[in-house]
DNA sequence: CTGAAAGCGCTTACAG
DNA sequence: CTGAAAGCGCTTACAG
C-alpha cells in the first residue's frame, strides 16, 4: 500500500492540492465545510505530512539537536543528562518537536555535528551543554546563525542566549553551613576543570573559605566519574590534615566518597561530613542519606527548551536565570567530632 | 549568505546538476578529473546535502528512532538507558546515522510516536526497548512494515527481529551460587511485572529455588525506582522468616537495599547478601561493593543498532543472542551467619 | 473561496 | 561521459 499524499486527499475530496494544504494547515482559503471534509478524509486514509517535503518547502525541521560530549562510562550513570533530557522532552513533545541526539568523543566532532545538522537542515536549533572555557561551539553557532541556547553561563557565552543558575551562591551557602558547624578543613572534589561551572564553583569555594577562616581548602579535579571521585577521596583521607568535610561536584562521586569513608573505617558524619552537588534519589537512598544541593533539573531542561523554541521562532531571548540550588541537609553532615 | 546548493556547484564547475549529484555520491557517470573538481568546489563553498531534499527523492532518512516509556524519575538515574544509547550511538555515528529520541508517558503515546515518525518518513527504522507482554508495538511495526529490532525477546516478539540475552540462565546461576553458600531464604525485588524479561526472570527464579530446596522464595514487584526498592527491602527485612539474600532487578534498587540494611542495623553480607542485576560503576563504589550480574550494555546497544541497520538495508536479520550476564562476586555476598 | 503553477534541492532514468 | 528533464510531496504567492 502506497503512502497517502495530499494529492490522494485532493482527488477524493474533489479539490486542488492547494486547498488541501490550506485546510490541513488551518490557513484561510477554504470554507469550513470543505475543511472538515478534507480533515475527515485525511484522518480516514491515515495521512501524515511527509516531513521532508515540508522541510523542503521552507518549513522548519521541527527538531532540535543535542550533542553530548562525555565518555560513555560517565554518561552512563550521571543522572544529570537523562533528567535534563526528560525535561527538554516534556517541553518538546507537547509541540511535536523531536529531539536529535548524538554522543560525541571530542570537541571537533561536536562542532562538526552541529555544523552538519545545520547544513543538512536537520535541526532548527541546538542546545549547548557543558560549556567549556573558550568553547569552540560559541563562535560556530554565532557564525552559522544557528539558533542556540546554552545550558550554563552567564560567562563565556558571548552573545548566545542561555539559561543558568547561580552555582557560586549555592557553593557559598554550603561552605557557610559547614563553617557554622565548625568545619575548618573542607575539601572539594571537583568536576572537569575546563568547564565554566567548575571554574565558577572553584572561585566561590576559595572565596568563601578565605572569608570564613577555613584554613585548609583543598580542591582535587576529576572527570566526574565515581572512580576518580573515590580515588580523590582516598587521597584526601590518607593525607595529614585530613578534611572533616568534603563537597563533591556530583552525586555519583559523593556516593563513591561515602563508600571510601566506610571502607577506611571512618564514620559519616562523625569523622567526615559529605555534601553532594546535585541531588538524585540515590542521595536519599544510601545510608546515611547525603546532604545535597538540590536543583530541579528537568525544570532546568524544560526552561532551556522553551527558550530555544522562542529563539527558533525569532524572538530575542537573552539570559535567563533559573532557581539556585538549595541546600538540603541530611544525615551526612554534622559538627566535626574533634574541632581543630 | 545563502546556503549553497548543487546548482551553485554545477554553475561554478560548468557542469549540470546531475553530474554534480553523481560526483558527490560516488556514482559512475563523471570522469575522475571532473569528480575531483566538483568535490573540491563543494568543500570550498561549504556545501552540505539538504537532508530533506534527499529524503524527498526517495533516499533514506539516515535516522533511527527510539521512544522510551518510563517515568522521568526512573529514567533519570537508571544507568541502563544511557549506556544502551551510547552503544547505539557508537554504531550509528560511524555511519552518519542520527538518533531520534522521545520520552513518552504511556503505551498509546509510544505507538503514536512510531506511527507518526514513520508516516512523516523521519526515521528508517526503530528500536523497541522494554518489551511488554502483549506489547502493542509489535503489531504496529509489523503492519506498517517499519524496520524494527527489539532489544529483548525471544518471546513475545512475533516476527520482529531482536537481540536478546539469557536472563534466565543468569538468574539460575545466581540462585545456585547463593544456595551453595547456604542460603535457603532468598527474595527477589523485581522490576515492572508486565515486562517480558521480568516474567522470564521470575520463572527462572522460582524454578531454580524449587529445584535447589530454597524454601522461601518471595518476589516483590516494583517500578524499578530506588524508592520502591527501598520499600520492598524494608518489608522483606521486617517480616518473619527474613531472607538472608536478596536479588535486585537493577543496580539502583540494590544500592537502595544496601542503604536500608545499614539503616536497620543489619550487616551486609553477614546478615544479608545482596546481588544486583546489571552492574554499574556504582556497584563497585559503595561499601561493601555489590555482587552483580554484569553485562556489556553498550555492546548490547551496538549490536541492536547493527541489526537494525541491516534490517533497514533489507537484510533479514532474525534473532541474535548476546552474551549472558556474568556473575561477579564481590563483598556483598557470603555464607549466611546462621543457616536455618 | 478555489485552481493552476512554480518552486524547495536533490536523485535518477533517459537521451545524446 | 554529460545534459536536460521529470519527479519526490509539500507550500505559497498569483490569478480567477
From TrEMBL, chains A, B:
<dbReference type="InterPro" id="IPR046335">
    <property type="entry name" value="LacI/GalR-like_sensor"/>
</dbReference>
<dbReference type="InterPro" id="IPR010982">
    <property type="entry name" value="Lambda_DNA-bd_dom_sf"/>
</dbReference>
<feature type="domain" description="HTH lacI-type">
    <location>
        <begin position="4"/>
        <end position="58"/>
    </location>
</feature>
<dbReference type="Pfam" id="PF13377">
    <property type="entry name" value="Peripla_BP_3"/>
</dbReference>
<keyword id="KW-0805">Transcription regulation</keyword>
<dbReference type="InterPro" id="IPR028082">
    <property type="entry name" value="Peripla_BP_I"/>
</dbReference>
<dbReference type="InterPro" id="IPR000843">
    <property type="entry name" value="HTH_LacI"/>
</dbReference>
<keyword id="KW-0804">Transcription</keyword>
<dbReference type="Pfam" id="PF00356">
    <property type="entry name" value="LacI"/>
</dbReference>
<protein>
    <submittedName>
        <fullName>LacI family transcriptional regulator</fullName>
    </submittedName>
</protein>
<keyword id="KW-0238">DNA-binding</keyword>
Amino acid at each position: 500500500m502506497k503512502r497517502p499524499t495530499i494529492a490522494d486527499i485532493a482527488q477524493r475530496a474533489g479539490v486542488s492540492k492547494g486547498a488541501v494544504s490550506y485546510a490541513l494547515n488551518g490557513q484561510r482559503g477554504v470554507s469550513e465545510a470543505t475543511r472538515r471534509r478534507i480533515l475527515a478524509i485525511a484522518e480516514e486514509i491515515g495521512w501524515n505530512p511527509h516531513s521532508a517535503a515540508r522541510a523542503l518547502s521552507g518549513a522548519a525541521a521541527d527538531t532540535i539537536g543535542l550533542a553530548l560530549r562525555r565518555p560513555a562510562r560517565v554518561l552512563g550513570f550521571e543522572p544529570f543528562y537523562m533528567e535534563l533530557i526528560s525535561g527538554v522532552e516534556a517541553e518538546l513533545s507537547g509541540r511535536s518537536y523531536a529531539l536529535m541526539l548524538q554522543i560525541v568523543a571530542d570537541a571537533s566532532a561536536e562542532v562538526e555535528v552541529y555544523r552538519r545538522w545545520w547544513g543538512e537542515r536537520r535541526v532548527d536549533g541546538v542546545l549547548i551543554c557543558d560549556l567549556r572555557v573558550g568553547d569552540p561551539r560559541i563562535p560556530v553557532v554565532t557564525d552559522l546563525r544557528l539558533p542556540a541556547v546554552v545550558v550554563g553561563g552567564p560567562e563565556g557565552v558571548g552573545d548566545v542566549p542561555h539559561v543558568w543558575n547561580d552555582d557560586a551562591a549555592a557553593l557559598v551557602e554550603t561552605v557557610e553551613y559547614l563553617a557554622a558547624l565548625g568545619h575548618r578543613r573542607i575539601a572539594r572534589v571537583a568536576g572537569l576543570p575546563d568547564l565554566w561551572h567548575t571554574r565558577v564553583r572553584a572561585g566561590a569555594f576559595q572565596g568563601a573559605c578565605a572569608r570564613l577562616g577555613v584554613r585548609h581548602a583543598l580542591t582535587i579535579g576529576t572527570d566526574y566519574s565515581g572512580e576518580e571521585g573515590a580515588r580523590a577521596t582516598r587521597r584526601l583521607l590518607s593525607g595529614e590534615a585530613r578534611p572533616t568535610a568534603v563537597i563533591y561536584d556530583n552525586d555519583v562521586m559523593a556516593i563513591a566518597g561515602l563508600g571510601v569513608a566506610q571502607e577506611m573505617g571512618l564514620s559519616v558524619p562523625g569523622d567526615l561530613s559529605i555534601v553532594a552537588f546535585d541531588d538524585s534519589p540515590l542521595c536519599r537512598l544510601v545510608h546515611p542519606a547525603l546532604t545535597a544541593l538540590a536543583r530541579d533539573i528537568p525544570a532546568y531542561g524544560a526552561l532551556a527548551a522553551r527558550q530555544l523554541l522562542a529563539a527558533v521562532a525569532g524572538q530575542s531571548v537573552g539570559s535567563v536565570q533559573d532557581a539556585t540550588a538549595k541546600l538540603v541537609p541530611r544525615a551526612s553532615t554534622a559538627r566535626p567530632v574533634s574541632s581543630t
